[in-house]
Automatic annotation (TrEMBL), chains A, B:
Its EC number is 6.3.3.1. It catalyses: 2-formamido-N(1)-(5-O-phospho-beta-D-ribosyl)acetamidine + ATP = 5-amino-1-(5-phospho-beta-D-ribosyl)imidazole + ADP + phosphate + H(+). It comes from Uliginosibacterium aquaticum. This is Phosphoribosylformylglycinamidine cyclo-ligase. Keywords: ATP-binding, Ligase, Nucleotide-binding. Residues 189-352 form the PurM-like C-terminal domain. The keyword Ligase applies. The keyword Nucleotide-binding applies. Belongs to the AIR synthase family.
């Protein structure tokens, strides 16, 4: 490619500016934990820095989280004139997935969801088709995850949110029915297997790059992928909800030793666990055509692609080696393709992707966020 | 005044466009409640439509909520050049207040808070003073409410959130330690007293009107109030956190029959309870100078002012008449001024403000949101 490769900084996301705030906020947040003692409640300390926060409330373990969609709704807005569909049913599922796919990593069963739909003006809500798609898509995703939609907030914030746009987020509360199911990393060990679950496409991370790329494509979102689908439409395939898989594992008596939702930072997230382990990958999942297309047209190498996009792996389980095939079988049985893709080894913290001859060192994942 | 009075529609908030979505969403949300049965969990049905959602999780009553700040951060941004302060410590408290002041209305003790700070770009987080104020203000408000700051989300969403702006929200999880403390309206009865708690100023509702008004003021946010303070600075007085008051009531063995957080819709919120009661107010709280100034300069009458702003009453308790003085005494002892201001009567649903000769009929509060 003659053009400069597109990477995340070029696409407008500069983590170096965000990270200092995150660290300051994390310290301040930790300092408030003592407030719980007066209520007879305690935090599960190891959940700080994990994907969901866990409190022990009189013996009941409650997990909670708030997550945002990001900028994927901008893709839906741009693609609607091409497909004639609002795609907000998919966007609803994406938003819920951002919350529940994180919540389940600590071993929780999600119970409730609150919606946060913050629009650039009240006229956003006057588009009946879009509004109906958003509401019914939200309801459907709640049904798939067996959660109750408990309420929400639908402000119109002209001057804060861009006109015609919407800032979507979800918060979720879940329960960890027994302490044995708490998955905070203490169970992981040398020899565990890594089972990767298929993503449905871009999910909701890497969207800034996906949008930036459109500027380079003569046909924009209407560009054809290798499978004949449109780039924009494929980008809007909704994020896989992994809740049915974790629930089925628990029902089968399988407790993962650790779990990671592969989101920002791509496969570098595979080393999310706080310990020092080497994650050796021997089998690659199929790369969804939309991600292969992005890598090609953005002109980025495998290191950049796997370091920022999910490249076909939306979620990782770290399980006892002898349970790995069973975990994959259960996921496959639920229509979520799964691969026993690697193993955890004692050793320096790094992700080694053998088929690509690629290694991400520990310092390439600064934040456990 | 020669100019047209400013009201909410003129200030850009058109509830008639938002309300149909809210109703559609409420129906869809209710339909998902059955999902809980498979988890051995049930919702407290009466909490739907109340300010926080309550689930019975194996006998533990957990309340949850997500609430947004609204547009008040725009005021902080505009006032900063005048005062030289970022005011984001106050803004942090406002955001937390939006969540916890709602959560406590159902009888909950807030336990945890998640932050949702969604900026228009990563450069928002590079302003160190503002970032420090936001973080430390957030921490301080958590300490006042005795909650643990469990985590949060700090996305940079260029294209969704306006450049240089931030969309702030908070979600909270709380516990209702005993079923007797659940405050969902079934306890309220003819003869109950209404105790109003002082607001600190505008809180975070009516801000669109406050901002619109600036266009009419020759000195804008630097306009002087009757007490000599600047309009902009007074607008940024942080919302009172009422958690210490509810906690003190519970500690004294007092369970309100109902509670209402006076936010959007102003004093019409006094009839938030689903039943048919007449709320007769005989005593008015002091009107904060900033709200008196707004009423005067916006050229709105008492009906409009009390129907959209808190006018000095930030929170309402409905309590057994014989406990009313004790409730007010406890609040006053915590530095929150309180008035035994009226009574609940059997009768048509309406708010009667006798000193102003004003009545809001039931159909003037369409939504219980």
């Amino acid at each position: 490619m003659a053009q400069t490769p597109l990477d995340y900084t070029a696409a407008g996301v500069d983590y170096s500016k965000i990270d200092p705030l995150k660290i300051l906020a994390q310290k301040a947040a930790s300092a408030t934990a003592g407030n719980l003692a007066g209520h007879g409640v305690s935090e599960i300390l190891a959940s700080r820095g994990e994907s969901a926060y866990v409190m022990d409330i009189g013996g009941t373990l409650i997990a909670s989280i708030t997550e945002c969609l990001g900028t994927k709704a901008l893709v839906a807005d741009a693609v609607r004139p091409i497909t004639g569909k609002t795609h907000y049913d998919s966007i609803a599922q994406d938003t819920i997935a951002m919350a529940v796919n994180d919540l389940i990593t600590v071993g929780a069963t999600p119970l409730s969801i609150h919606a946060y739909w913050s629009a650039g003006g009240s006229e956003w809500f006057a588009d009946e088709q879009r509004m109906r798609d958003l509401v019914l898509g939200w309801q459907k995703a709640c049904d798939v995850c067996k959660v109750s939609w408990g309420g929400g907030e639908t402000p119109a914030l002209a001057g804060v949110v861009e006109a015609g746009r919407i800032d979507l987020a979800a918060s979720s509360v879940g329960i960890i029915p027994s302490r044995e199911r708490l998955t905070l990393g203490d169970k992981m060990q040398d020899g565990d297997a890594i089972v990767l679950l298929a993503s449905s496409g871009i999910h909701a991370n890497g969207v800034s790059l996906a949008r930036k790329l459109v500027e380079r494509l003569p046909e924009g979102y209407a560009s054809k992928l290798s499978d004949g689908r449109l780039y924009g439409e494929a980008l809007l395939d909704p994020t896989t909800l992994y809740v049915p898989v974790t629930e089925a594992l628990f029902a089968a008596g399988i407790v993962p030793h650790y779990s990671a939702n592969i989101t920002g930072h791509g496969w570098r997230k595979i080393m999310r666990h706080p310990g020092n382990f080497t994650y050796r990958i021997h089998t690659l999942p199929d790369v969804p055509p939309v991600l292969a297309f992005m890598q090609e047209h953005a002109g980025i190498d495998d290191r950049e692609a796997y370091g920022s996009l999910n490249m076909g792996a939306g979620f990782a389980f770290y399980v006892a080696a002898e349970q790995a095939e069973e975990v994959a079988r259960i996921a496959n049985g639920l229509g979520v393709k799964a691969w026993v893709a690697g193993r955890v080894e004692a050793g320096p913290k790094q992700v080694v992707i053998e088929p690509l001859n690629l290694t991400y060192a520990a310092d390439e994942l600064h934040l456990r966020a």
